[in-house]
Design goal:
It contains ten helices and three strands; from the N terminus they run E-E-E-H-H-H-H-H-H-H-H-H-H. The radius of gyration is 19 Å and the shape is globular. Strands 1-2-3 form a three-stranded antiparallel β-sheet, with no helix packed on it. With 272 residues, the chain is mostly helical. Strand 1 (2-5) and strand 2 form a beta hairpin. The model has no long low-confidence stretch (mean pLDDT 86).
Length: 272
């Protein structure tokens, strides 16, 4: 069923429509977990090992494993990170959270060690100056593009890096923003995302409805983690990974999912 691109099989072609299931799971997993925790008649799903922790680790362990097998490590990290946050805010025991983090780190570490392309990204991160025309080409070009913007940028539509920067409309779009709008535009973009995520978390503290609160926390966390991973990857803060910048990068599934998240957040803030 899957369509391959760039050595990965992360998409499903349905006629003229292409869907990316990992983006849809970011939405569904938060809704499911929020409903599962808030609909419990007692604290068993938060405090009990058999009725709470085992189902949680089984469901999200399966999701994470499928994503790792289809070479979508970044999506696995985003989904598990948001799930852990919702689980913690929902009242889960701290030892369950710590255990999940340790298991996830071990599994992801094994996948990184066993797959050459993931290991190459770690090596690239540790030594970005080596093999500048090969494995390090994208990150070096991203850094050059960001630096060439200066304080105010070269102007909208005037990017010279669009001719050679890989994934410029998707996984590296922030570098183009930095080039065309400069340091001021970059800080403004980061600030807008900070306000969006912060507003969602602030509203969550004020809402008494359990499922509404968990939805706000989950969606805000998904957006926040993905923004950090996108900007961090193109600026060399974290190893290079391919995630779109929410609301900005080209891609129909991701845009539809994030707009749906914001729509639900607005509905919760209005009615809860």
């Amino acid at each position: 069923l899957g369509a391959s691109s760039g050595g990965a099989r992360r998409w499903i072609d349905i006629g003229p429509l292409t869907l990316q299931p990992s983006e849809i799971i970011k939405l569904i997993s938060v809704i499911y977990l929020a409903a599962w925790l808030s609909n419990a008649k007692d604290d068993s799903r938060r405090k009990n090992f058999i009725e709470g922790f085992v189902p949680f680790i089984a469901i999200f362990g399966l999701i994470g494993l499928l994503l790792l097998l289809e070479r979508s490590t970044s999506s696995a990290v985003i989904i598990l990170g948001s799930a852990l946050t919702v689980y913690f805010v929902g009242g889960a025991r701290g030892k369950y959270i710590i255990t999940t983090v340790l298991i996830a780190a071990l599994v992801v570490g094994l996948f990184v060690f066993m797959t050459p392309y993931r290991w190459n990204r770690i090596a690239t991160y540790l030594n970005p100056s080596a093999d500048s025309s090969g494995a390090n080409y994208q990150i070096n070009q991203s850094l050059f593009t960001i630096g060439s913007g200066g304080i105010f940028g070269v102007g909208y539509g005037n990017s010279a890096s669009k001719k050679y920067l890989p994934e410029r409309i998707g996984d590296a779009i922030f570098a183009i923003i930095a080039e065309e709008f400069g340091f001021v535009g970059s800080v403004t973009t980061i600030g807008l995302f900070f306000v969006l995520v912060g507003r969602g978390l602030m509203l969550a503290r004020r809402i008494a409805d359990p499922i509404g609160r968990l939805l706000l926390v989950g969606f805000s966390t998904v957006i926040g983690i993905q923004v950090f991973m996108h900007i961090g990857a193109v600026s060399g803060l974290i190893p290079l990974t391919g995630v779109p910048l929410p609301f900005v990068s080209y891609g129909g599934t991701a845009l539809a999912v994030f707009m749906t998240m914001v729509g639900i957040m607005l509905n919760v803030s209005k009615n809860a």
